[in-house]
Amino acid sequence: MATPMEEDRLESAAAPPADVAGGGAEDGEKPDAPPMESDSDSSDSDDEGDAGDELRIQALERALLEQPLDYESHVQLIQCLRKSGNIEKLRAAREEMNKYFPLTPKMWQDWAKDEISLSSGRGSFDDIEKLYERGVQEYLNIKLWRDYLDYVEEHDQSVSQCSQSGLSKMRDLYERAITAGGLHVTEGSKLWEAYREYEMAILTINDGNDEEKAKQVQRVRALFHRQLSVPLADIESTLAAYKSWEAEEGNTRDPDSQVDDVPPNVLSAYKKASEMYNARKQYEDELSVVAESEANKLQVFLKYIKFEKSFGDPARVQVLYERAVSELPVSSDLWMGYTSYLDRTLKVPAILKSVYHRATRNCTWVSDLWVHYLLSLERIRASEDELRHVFELAIQCSFPSMNEYLNIYLTRVDSLRRRMPTGLDFELIRQTFVDAAEFLSPQLGIEELLLLHAYWAKLECNIGKDIAAARGVWENALKKRFIIMFVQVHTIFSLLALS
């Protein structure tokens, strides 16, 4: 199964060949003209091509009915449908893929671009806005955020008309973008600059009174001050832009000076941010060098994250983890480290739920992530409905061994047991054991089955207060053990007889 990181390779492999009408020429030479085709020949060729594309689409649709978790087939189906122009089927295919997998930022950009080309009216705007919202929640990607910001700024009437509600909406969206990616050392400045440009545009068209203009000037100034306190790759050019802007506002004596008329607190923050950037530059340089090697990139990210953790700033650590999982989305080491860090340090329910949800969508086969997900939900007092939903998703995954399914079931039982004082019915525990025994018995080892039934009998006795039920559990366990042993012995004798 292809991974999200392989999408670009898959797209290249599946993409239709470039138009060769002008290909093959070097240094501006015109190639020989191809033989002329009659209209009927051209039409026949087009019909054959369309028929071939349709057959390919049908084959991919059949393949996905049988194997809905085949990432590569999802990608190829979307490419074929995009080429065919069947927008309804294309939408459905994208939604179907996103049921099982997170889409890459490039796939979200393509989706939004396609919808924008067909959009008309307020309803279309709302739908496209929701698409961007879904996209930025899956991975941190500065380009996707910029597309989102540009789209809302250009197409939301309340924003383009600079109404109070529009101004508030756009500022809130910019603040969200800054929170998500404003600390990105190499690309975060793109978000800050877009935010400043927006506020500067408001200042330019502001025809209100002097007090309103003064407030808008202060908004721009505050954005400069905030950005100058963040260690970003082009922090020096930001200072120069700030000096130039203050000069235009008539608030500086020497725009060529690096320090004149910069408030002491801003200058101090700038110097600290510059030092922080210089300390991180070596890691950024290493990441740019190992861009083609995922194994080396992982090691650099892990070193970088360890370095960032030593400063104790959770926001910076979180953004770095987001950068890492965006580039290496199927690295279980990164997701395990990220979720464990949030469990220990941040402990914000909404963030924990979001990151665990994305971790288990990217690495569905890692049972430890599911176990930690369930434990984290319990710690933040998630509802029983939410816990049950995540548990049911977990047992539908493909894990390498049956023992991992056993661990998921036991984690579920432990959670129910701990929450019995909150009013849960013991029948939930009993039914979980019944389901576990039915699911696991055919393939689980004897020792593990006995462990499961022993725990079941203990809880029937201690919590369910039902001695007869506990005895019944043990009797069933012994019967299963005898049957399994009989089958094993019979198999051994059969093999001996054949030899």
From TrEMBL:
List, as start-end ranges, the regions of compositional bias called Basic and acidic residues. 1-11
Protein name, per record: Suppressor of forked domain-containing protein
Example GO CC term: the record gives: nucleus
Can you give the residue ranges of the Suppressor of forked domain? 57-396
- Localization: Nucleus
Report keywords, A-Z.
mRNA processing, mRNA splicing, Nucleus, Repeat
GO biological process: one example: RNA splicing
